[in-house]
Structure prediction request, 199 residues.
Amino acid sequence: MENNIDFKNLWKQQSVSPPNMEELLSKVKHFKSVSMRKLVITNVLLIATSFFIGFIWYRYQPELISTKIGIVLIIFAMVLYLFVYNKLITFYKTIDDNQSNSEYLQKLISIKAKQHYLQSSVLSLYFILLGSGLSLYMYEYASRMTILWAIVAYAVTLGWIGFTWFYLRPKEIKKEQNRINTLIAKFEAVNNQLNADEE
Prediction:
């Protein structure tokens, strides 16, 4: 009995089923709707938070300039983030059912580049401004506390920012990148297959 099986040849001979275009377009549609929903929720939350912070300023009239600068920095961080983040709307809206595979691929690559810029440069600036703003804002109120409670207040606040930066942010970035990389890989496979069929 022959035990020498040529796995390489068997692998080459197997038929590769082409990716189902309907399924792929359905995934793109799902990606678009999830991304747009996330964008809307982020807008609502950050705008509501900005108004709430503005209301706190108006209602409680902080005395120190550091508190006012802190509030301005926090609101500026949110506005800046939304300004850049909302530029993705045009990319999401231009994805439709009438595009060719290569157009889908180009759109997804553009979205990936914008997401990378948002997740690296803009998010870093956002956290720096937010952390600085919160630290300045808290100073007026922490100065009225005992040293122990002031340290606890700063430790909890900065600890939460650190947790978000070092744990939640990378987790979310990885999830977003996996989603778009999977779509890009599938469209590249379709394009490669179409190019191979034309040759």
